[in-house]
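Risk mitigation, structural track. In case the binding assays with phosphoric acid mono(formamide)ester fail to produce interpretable data, a predicted complex structure has been prepared as a fallback.
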Amino acid sequence: MNQSRYANSVQLNDQGQLRHFLTLEGLDRELLTEILNTADSFVDMSAQSVKKVPLLRGKTVVNLFFENSTRTRSTFELAAKRLSADVLNLDIKSSATSKGETLRDTLWNLQAMASDMFVVRHSDSGAAHFIAEHVTPGVAIINAGDGRHAHPTQAMLDMVTIRRHKGDFSQLKVAIVGDILHSRVARSQIHVLNTLGAGEVRVVGPKTLLPKYIETLGVTVCYDLDEGLRDVDVVIMLRLQTERMASAFLPSQGEFYKLYGLSRERLALAKPDAIVMHPGPINRGVEIESEVADGCQSMILKQVGYGVATRMAVMSMAMSGQTTQ
Ligand code: CP
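Fallback model:
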């Protein structure tokens, strides 16, 4: 069985509905569109004075973040609360993990407290998948980022942003710029953009920060930023993920900014109405100039807002996929 069929055998139920959310690789356009439509309805709801719905009332959601996070953790917590769930944020630094408890034992103990859903971020690729294979049936696992592998809810909130602000994917040229090699976000974005039929997906960066054979994922490779930005509708900037770099991939951050940093002048090479995105955290003056990050084409804070709605969509769909098997 190939990798995406195997992932789907774990994350989908017999009717093809989500029961876990581990990766976008192999999910079909129909299901991805259903997530986008559901997220859109929650975006509209978040503009109302009462932002809560009872879809997860009586359910318990546990946030298990073994790696640091600001946006993902906070938006998952808010999303669970807006769905009326009870939320437990396990503080990993003060947990029994420091006494040598394994991931599996931590999970089994939290499961014994009748938890219904775990949102998992881990530095090991495959951690969320491993957990999904070891939980009791009826408990949902949501991948909040695993190593370099996948960050599926980030990529989906990025698609919500693109669809709301640019429309039809088939008409769009998208450039993903920077440290693609260490980026789980880029991998998930490439899968979903291709499945949704994006006109062109370009990856732009130095050879040392582009994975070998990346073109086999259906992207155009550019080593030159000016060439990569020309006439695109969407620019997605990525930070240098130094925490995942085992050795030096670049002469210096200053050199990287000179060659790959997004300045106002460089952004002018894209279409005049191009949008600028970044999953965050941003490093001003390293991959993006402040004037661009805070400028009128920037969607960076809108992305964060759509993150709550997107996570509400995924959590409610995964919970509903538990009961209809
Ligand atoms: N985009 C993202 O995953 O940000 P955090 O690390 O703050 O969650």
